[in-house]
Predict the structure.
Amino acid sequence: MNLRTIHVQADPAYPIHIGVNLLERITSETHGRAVIIDDEHTRGVLGQALVDALSTQGRQPLHITVPAGEGSKSVDTWQTVLRTMADAGVTRDTTVMAVGGGVVGDLAGFVAATYARGLPFVQIPTSLLAMADAAVGGKTGINLPEGKNLVGAFWQPAAVYMDVATLASLPQDRFNEGRVEIAKHGLLADTALLALALDDAFEPHAEATLLADVLARSVAVKADVVAEDALEQSGARATLNLGHTLAHAYEAIAQHTIAHGVAVAWGLLYAAHLSAAWAAHERVPFNAWTTHAHDLLARIDAPLPPDVTFDALLPYLKRDKKNAGVGRRWVLMPDVGHARLAQVTDRMEREAWASYAEDVATIRARKGTP
Ligand SMILES: NC(=O)c1ccc[n+]([C@@H]2O[C@H](COP(=O)([O-])OP(=O)(O)OC[C@H]3O[C@@H](n4cnc5c(N)ncnc54)[C@H](O)[C@@H]3O)[C@@H](O)[C@H]2O)c1
Ligand SMILES: [Zn+2]
């Protein structure tokens, strides 16, 4: 299979390699000592194999395996990893390598950004979500009890290696978490990608060529956006939050018992309704895309969203950190491929909520749930 390489125009620029059997490439393109950070699941997927390959080269890798799950994006785990590295005498010429999903990537990236004022960092994402989203764009960080991703840094990797063969062991619901972000990238900039993301053939065990093609297209969309707005200053990067404002409110009100991807899929449906309401009020042309959101919800067989009123969600919407100043800003899309941030009134939100709620009721009835 041919390797696909996408160059992210960050500062500094770095390559994202997408293919299979990338161990040899990783060990030959990196140098010196390495700290490999993985979790108890990804250790067996690629972490141990990478450690063994580096050991064979006499590179004395330090292997740190953290518990799987969001709980590892904590001050405690961050400190434990830093202290394990300090104990082992890790110096500034050491490369930190993350082997795992977004949790390991965000944690290891923040370790790399902070240990000894910064170490070279290499991302080896193994979940579809980490490949499509978390490992692209240079955001690293951990959570506080007060909020997700409250502590972090922009820290660009030297390179990213995506071995699509690792996806074979990913559970279906985890795969769908990535599928939703890929579909979002399709909606934002690549309708052919949207179709690929929803296609029956796109599965954890799909042919490597197909997986790599879909990922390359998805990565290209995000890479373009982050190159334009690496530090999230111009607003371009904010369009990546399409569907995420409502998703974050759902996640908060459900105390994170709803999967992020499921919440985003519902959030995309609401964004489609809100875009319609906004376009009608602003008298701008509108091209409905609710069917795409419906197709995505059906493709991931999304469980119903929390059964809450708009008023119940309001406090959680207000808390969203992307809302600066008066009113509420949402990522809207009057037409597929044309997302933008726009100020939205309470009236538009409620109008959209009414038609969204009707949609949800229809889906609820179809699922046979009272
Ligand atoms: N930095 C960013 O820009 C960014 C963007 C999006 C999400 N994120 C973060 O990413 C995290 C979510 O990432 P995630 O969904 O990958 O979660 P995760 O890292 O918890 O991985 C999900 C589960 O799948 C397992 N796993 C990973 N790869 C596997 C494989 N190949 N085979 C079998 N099991 C495998 C993991 O061990 C874990 O149990 C969140 O913390 C989120 O905040 C960051
Ligand atoms: Zn997301």
In short: Residues 242-363 form a domain with the Dehydroquinate synthase-like, alpha domain fold (CATH 1.20.1090.10).
